[in-house]
Amino acid sequence: MSRYVGAPGSTMSRREFLAATGGAGVLGLAGCTAPTNERTQAAMQEGTDAAASQGGSLPSTSPPEVVNVDEQGGSVTLKSLPARHSAHPLDSMGGPVELPQVWAFQADDGEPSVPGPILRTTEGSDMEVTLDNTEGMRPHTLHFHGVRKAWKDDGVPTTTGIRVDPGEKHTYTIPANVPGTHLYHCHYQTHRHIEMGMYGVFRVDPEGYEPADREYFMTMKDWDSRLPRQMAGEDVRYDPRNRNPDVFTINGKSAPRTLHPEDGSPIIVSEGDQVRLHLANNGYMSHPIHIHNHRFERVEKDGGQIPENARHGMDVTNVAPAERHTIEFTADAEPGIYLLHCHKVNHVMNGGFYPGGMLGGVVYEDAMDTDIFAQLMEYAGYEV
């Protein structure tokens, strides 16, 4: 069970979410007509059974958690383990969308997730990040983008001579000397290990950082599902030189699961909120992210502050592979439900079904007790 409602970042409890839906909305969610609810249950079980038959006894991934490394004395342990990943487990809107095996990151005693845990620290601190591969089956490393670090901590085995083999641990010292939003990923056989899910975000808050009213992290990823299927034992062939992405996710989920309040990443706002989104692209393709009915400004790029006189109103920002864009806007539209999506429209699909894929939403709390929100929750598989 997720520790929050909505995208990782700002927290909203499940109780607060249910209160926002209102009594009528809650009843609509739980009890549309009985046949519809039974179909939803059957579809969910069908998706779970299919994944279990493919993935055997593998654990299922959870949504990424935010780890405040400062509160842990500046240290965190990451390990990777095989898991089953349901980008969208139901048959609604072109599903189910399943990756029968991924290599998920897990922080300390948390749950495995794709993307990996969001590591958050403060400028001027050092993070001691231990890669625990004692129970692993293949070599791994950790490479952190953005910050300046010692040569030996760069995480590239061919240039540092350091890799973490099965049965080993290794601790990287990662100075928090470049404020902003950054990435980390495995840099051993990178073309395969990122494709298998070994990626995540870390955030360095500048000294004196003032959070927005709502602040969220969103990671985009395009997948060629042949590699996860091959690793799960299916009779498919993956060629990284002939990559053909067929799954598109935000924070590991495809629409409509992206709108699921606890398993997905809706951007939940109240009218008048100042909203800050940290967008990261861990995929291999660029993704022009568009938000409906809101103008935003890009205030950070790859850990660099954009001067105020260089900012301007936008409604699309094109996030290239490995780029990070932080955008800000005011929730000043008529309260409702507005799309956030990649504007390469074939990325907003589940197979041949549109809409799906790399699509999320900005959801005003005042719109949560409407019939249309209840219908979206049914598509996403959310039940009270």
- The proportion of residues in beta strands is 25-35%
Number of helices: 6
Q: Strand order within the widest sheet?
A: 11-10-13-18-15-16
Uncertain stretches of 5 or more adjacent residues: 24-55
What is the makeup of the main sheet?
Answer: 6 strands, mixed
Would you count the extended β strands for me? 20
Helix content: 10-25%
Structure in words:
InterPro entries: Cu-oxidase-like_N, Cu-oxidase_C, Cu-oxidase_fam, Cupredoxin, TAT_signal. The protein is of the alpha+beta class and 384 residues long. 17% of the residues lie in helices and 32% in strands. The protein is built from six helices and 20 strands. The strands form four sheets. The protein has a six-stranded mixed β-sheet, with no helix packed on it. A five-stranded mixed β-sheet has the order 1-4-9-8-6, with no helix packed on it. A five-stranded mixed β-sheet has the order 12-20-19-14-17, with no helix packed on it.
Strand-helix topology:
Elements: H1 14-31, H2 34-55, E1 66-68, E2 75-88, E3 97-107, E4 118-122, E5 126-133, E6 143-144, H3 157-160, E7 168-175, E8 180-185, H4 190-193, E9 199-205, E10 214-223, H5 226-231, E11 247-250, E12 267-269, E13 274-281, E14 287-291, E15 297-301, E16 304-305, E17 316-319, E18 324-330, E19 337-342, E20 359-364, H6 371-380
Parallel strand pairs: 1-4, 2-5, 4-9, 10-13, 12-20
Antiparallel strand pairs: 2-3, 5-7, 6-8, 8-9, 10-11, 13-18, 14-17, 14-19, 15-16, 15-18, 19-20
Helix pairs in contact: 1-6
